[in-house]
Specification:
- The termini are far apart.
- Helix content is 19%, strand content 45%.
- By secondary structure, the protein is of the alpha+beta class.
- The chain has a 34-stranded mixed sheet that branches.
């Protein structure tokens, strides 16, 4: 901004010199005088082409033909300023009194080139030894004698059909403002200045209206009141506060509507981010903003709006070196479902809902985490509720810390599904993508959770969970395929809907539904390990009023498959019947699990039981035979041997009774 103010004042003074000299010197001498003054002030060459045309009415003035101002020596973009012509009209009475009252100043079709070299040099820093004539001294118009800084005012200044080109050779960025029309009014050097501007930035319509409360202070580097209203496409920015240019500083109230992302990114010469559908229809910011001279931005009493989401809080952004953001924000209900990679809750289709739809598996879309390297940050966020699309959270307090592309999210408290989650979650973008976590879940209602995450609503009950995990890959599918970790889970009382284990045991029919089609349980516990995307467990314990069960097997987290074996044992009833033990296999996919009795194992167990029974019977016979002193002959049963033994003993007794041998 400072170069603009100084350049305008310099043009005004030089124009006055031209007018004054025109009536004292020939046109050629006037051109030479102006060239000398500009060269001394800027180190650049000015060229006046065509004839100088003086005027006496209604104001004393002069009009020129084409005018150019040379660029920095290192530039190859042509003149820094080229205009088809300049016309100026002065108040003669004021000029004779030593003041410069410009009634009218018009610059026709100027082209201004602003450049930043790859090494940081800029073409608007002039190399002249003297300040431009009429430049406002440091500290304002009263800092020096009146004769060294004549008062300059402007009733009407106009730029018609101008162009401003900004070129950054370090990044290759080129931004062009064309169709530029500017109206400037500077009634008094110690009063306000008003500027109205319109044009197109990279094809996007831009309008600006600004007022500087005290242009003399502002031009001299002091702080002055500033009012600004700008629009770019449908985007809008309003600032009301104070600002200074030496050093650059500002503070005041800001209001921004940034919903027109197409216009904003087109103006920047960059493609519009590929945002999820429905995101960005309303983007806004309100609050108190301060830009400190050291290069830091501070936001207080802020309200940020993203569509239906409203967030309030404060933030500080340090721009020196790598940007660093710190902040604390709070919100009511947050809807983040458009940003999640998975489907919104309740729409997946699958086993729990009974839809029987096909399982498309985890997304293979590449996950771009390049934005993690843009800055470092430490941001605390709290919300009354959060909709993640795949899960619904209640009261939430988190602390996110981003350091060198590694994001750590500390879950200070997350209420979800009537339970509580604590721990941390890590996204590491250093040299690829990896994710990890260490989570503790207490008292969570599993039906709602599993229904939202996996469309599985058959498990009712509250669970405590301990989980550690680590995965890497550039997509959700790759991460789940390579997941590793471990943990444990424990349930209190609950039920399994659509699975009547007792009925299955008694009928040996996995399709048996029974009354209520459910299995009520008192407790479930298990521990597990995860390796290469496969969860393994071998200590499942299931306790129910009418049965117990043990289980082991594996669950494919990456492939969403099941290969699990549960061995339920039906407890004896009051009539003494029951005590059935039937192994049950659970296979297939999460969406379409298959339950079947392990008949092979059941037959094998029954054969083993028969063999055990036969062995026990043989052992019993041998024991009885020993007690009776009976030796069985081949093909003879124990009863026959006992009968034979009794007959033999009876015969011996009779013989002794009657005197026989």
């Amino acid at each position: 901004m400072r170069w603009i103010v100084r350049l305008v004042l310099a043009v005004l003074v030089l124009a006055a010199l031209m007018v004054g000299a025109l009536f004292l010197l020939p046109a050629g001498k006037v051109a030479g005088l102006v060239q000398d003054k500009v060269r001394a002030a800027t180190g650049r060459e000015v060229t006046l082409s065509g004839r100088l045309r003086p005027s006496l009415w209604p104001n004393v003035g002069v009009a020129t033909g084409p005018v150019t101002l040379s660029n920095a020596a290192w530039s190859d973009e042509g003149p820094m300023l080229a205009a088809e012509g300049v016309s100026v009209g002065l108040d003669l009475r004021a000029l004779l009194g030593g003041d410069i009252v410009v009634r009218d100043l018009t610059v026709q079709a100027p082209r201004i080139v602003l450049e930043r070299a790859a090494d940081g040099r800029t073409n608007w820093v002039f190399e002249g030894k003297a300040a431009p004539s009429g430049a406002v001294p440091q500290g304002g118009p009263e800092a020096g004698p009146r004769g060294t800084a004549p008062a300059v005012t402007l009733d009407r200044g106009e730029i018609a059909d101008g162009t401003v080109l900004y070129v950054d050779h370090a990044t290759g960025a080129r931004t062009e403002l064309d169709g530029l029309d500017v109206r400037l009014a500077l009634p008094a050097i110690d009063g306000p200045a008003d500027i109205v501007l319109s044009g197109r930035v990279n094809g996007q319509a831009v309008d600006l209206a600004a007022r500087v409360a005290h242009v003399g202070d502002f031009a001299g580097g002091a702080v002055s009141g500033i009012g600004l209203e700008a629009s770019l496409g449908a985007a809008r920015l309003v600032f009301d506060g104070r600002a200074g240019i030496d050093p650059v500083a500002a503070e005041g109230a800001i209001e921004a509507d940034l919903s027109d992302l197409d216009a904003l990114f087109a103006a920047l010469g960059r493609p519009v981010p590929d945002l999820p559908a429905g995101v960005g229809r309303r983007l806004g910011l309100e609050g108190q903003v301060t830009y400190a001279p050291g290069g830091s931005l501070h936001l207080r009493d802020a309200t940020l709006r993203q569509d239906a989401n409203v967030i309030s809080g404060a933030a500080d952004l340090t721009l020196a070196g790598k940007p660093r953001l710190t902040g604390r924000f709070s919100a009511g209900a947050l809807d983040l479902s458009p940003f999640t990679a998975g489907e919104a809750h309740g729409t997946g289709g699958g086993a729990g809902g009974g839809s029987g739809g096909a399982d498309d598996g985890w997304s293979t879309e590449p996950i771009d985490v390049g934005a993690l390297g843009a800055l470092d940050a430490e941001v605390a966020v709290s919300a009354d509720s959060v909709d993640l699309g795949t899960a619904l959270l209640g009261s939430t307090r988190i602390l996110a810390t981003l350091t060198d592309r590694r994001l750590v999210v500390e879950l200070e408290e997350v209420r979800a599904y009537d339970g509580r989650v604590t721990g941390n979650f890590v996204i590491n973008g250093r040299g690829g993508l990896s994710v990890g976590g260490d989570l503790t879940v207490a008292g969570m209602a599993m039906q709602g959770l599993l229904s939202d995450l996996a469309d599985y609503d058959r498990l009712l009950g509250r669970a405590d969970l301990r989980l550690e995990f680590l995965g890497s890959g550039n997509s959700m599918a790759a991460i789940m395929d390579g997941l590793s970790g471990g943990g444990s889970v424990a349930f209190g009382q609950g039920e399994l809907r659509g699975l009547d284990l007792v009925g299955m045991l008694r009928t040996l029919d996995t399709s048996y539904m029974g009354e209520g089609a459910k299995t009520i349980f008192d407790a479930i516990s298990a521990s597990f390990t995860i390796e290469n995307g496969v969860l393994r467990n071998d200590d499942l314990f299931f306790l129910a009023p009418l049965l117990t069960a043990a289980g082991k097997g594996k669950v494919g987290l990456g492939r969403r498959t099941l290969d699990y074996r549960v061995v339920p044992v039906a407890l004896p009833g009051a009539d003494g019947e029951g005590a059935l033990k039937v192994p049950l296999l659970i296979t297939g996919t999460w969406v379409d699990p298959e339950y079947r009795i392990d008949l092979e194992a059941l037959a094998r167990e029954r054969l083993e039981l028969d063999a055990q029974k036969q062995a026990l019977e043989e052992k019993a016979r041998e024991s009885v035979a020993r007690e009776l002193g009976v030796d069985t002959e081949e093909g003879e049963s124990l009863e026959d041997a006992a009968r034979r033994k009794l007959e033999e003993e009876a015969k011996k007794g009779l013989r002794r009774l009657f005197g026989g041998d």
